[in-house]
Inverse folding.
C-alpha cells in the first residue's frame, strides 16, 4: 500500500487503523521512490500491526519501464539510499519539465514550487492530475491523464530510469526482497504481448537477482489475471507477492485487505530476506 509519504492519501497511522478493521495482521508500505520516514527497521510494530518496510521503484530493462517492489528493507543501507536519491532526482527533473509544459500548453497556474509545498511526500503525476482538475482545466482525473499526462501527448515527459540490475543490487544490499510489480502492465518489446516473451524478460530479471513476482493483484480489464501471473512465477521459479496497491480511501478499485497472500507465501518471502527481526 501507499501513504502520504508518496501519492497516497492516508497516513501510516490511518493505514494501520484500517488494517486492524479488516483483520490484516501484516502489510507492507511501498511508497514511490522512498522509504517511509517512520521506519528504522525492516519490520516494525505499529498500532498493533506488523508493518513491512518497502518501496516501489521504477527501473529500466531492455528499453522498457517496470516497477520493482522492495520488501524487508534496512533503511540505513547506504547503497539503498544512493539509489533512492538518484531516482528521486530523476523524478524531480521530470516533474519540473512536465509542470513547465503544462503552464505553457495547458494554462496551468500553479508553479512547481507551489505544488511541492502542497504535497506531504513525493510529487507524482496523480498530484498533477488533481491540480488540473482543481483549476478547471479538465473535468476529471482520467481526462487529465488522457489529455496531458500519458505517453504520446505534448506535455508528457518520460522518467529517466535506473537500470534494473542497480535497483535489485541495492535491494539485496539492504537485506530486502525484490518483486516485479503487476507484471500484466509490463509490455515486452515484441510484436504481441505473449506469455513466452514476457517469461523470457522475467527470466532476464531473475538473472539480475529478481526474487519474486506480484501475482495477487487486481488487473481489471487489462486482459491479465492472477492465475496467469502465477503461471509466470512457476515457469521462472520465482516467489509470489500480492498487493492491493491501495492509495487510500476512494482512490482505487481495491482497498487495503482486499488482496492477500497466504501465511506460507509470506513465510517464504520473509525467509528470503536477510532480516532477523521476527514478525509477531
Amino acid at each position: 500500500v501507499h501513504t502520504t509519504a508518496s501519492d497516497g492519501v492516508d497516513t501510516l497511522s490511518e493505514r494501520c487503523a484500517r488494517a486492524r478493521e479488516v483483520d490484516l495482521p501484516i502489510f507492507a508500505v511501498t511508497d514511490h521512490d522512498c522509504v517511509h520516514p517512520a521506519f528504522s527497521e525492516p519490520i516494525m510494530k505499529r498500532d498493533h500491526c506488523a508493518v513491512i518496510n518497502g518501496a516501489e521503484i521504477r527501473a529500466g530493462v531492455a528499453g522498457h519501464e517496470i516497477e520493482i517492489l522492495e520488501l524487508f528493507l534496512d533503511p540505513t543501507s547506504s547503497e539503498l539510499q544512493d539509489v533512492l536519491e538518484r531516482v528521486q532526482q530523476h523524478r524531480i527533473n521530470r516533474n519540473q519539465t512536465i509542470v513547465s509544459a503544462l503552464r505553457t500548453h495547458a494554462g496551468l497556474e500553479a508553479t512547481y514550487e507551489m505544488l511541492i509545498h502542497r504535497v506531504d511526500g513525493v510529487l507524482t503525476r496523480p498530484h498533477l492530475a488533481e491540480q488540473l482538475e482543481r483549476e478547471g482545466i479538465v473535468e476529471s482525473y482520467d481526462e487529465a491523464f488522457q489529455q496531458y499526462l500519458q505517453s504520446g501527448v505534448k506535455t508528457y515527459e518520460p522518467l529517466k530510469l535506473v537500470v534494473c540490475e542497480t535497483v535489485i543490487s541495492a535491494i539485496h544490499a539492504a537485506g530486502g526482497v525484490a518483486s516485479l510489480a503487476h507484471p500484466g502492465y509490463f509490455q515486452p518489446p515484441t510484436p504481441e504481448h505473449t506469455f513466452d516473451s514476457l517469461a523470457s524478460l522475467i527470466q532476464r530479471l531473475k538473472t539480475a537477482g529478481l526474487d519474486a513476482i506480484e501475482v495477487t493483484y487486481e488487473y481489471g480489464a487489462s486482459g491479465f489475471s492472477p492465475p496467469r501471473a502465477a503461471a509466470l512465477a512457476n515457469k521462472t521459479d520465482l516467489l509470489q507477492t500480492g498487493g492491493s496497491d491501495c492509495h487510500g480511501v476512494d482512490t482505487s478499485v481495491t482497498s487495503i485487505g482486499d488482496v492477500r497472500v497466504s501465511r506460507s507465501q509470506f513465510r517464504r518471502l520473509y525467509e528470503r530476506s536477510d532480516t532477523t527481526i521476527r514478525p509477531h
Notes: The chain has a mean pLDDT of 91.
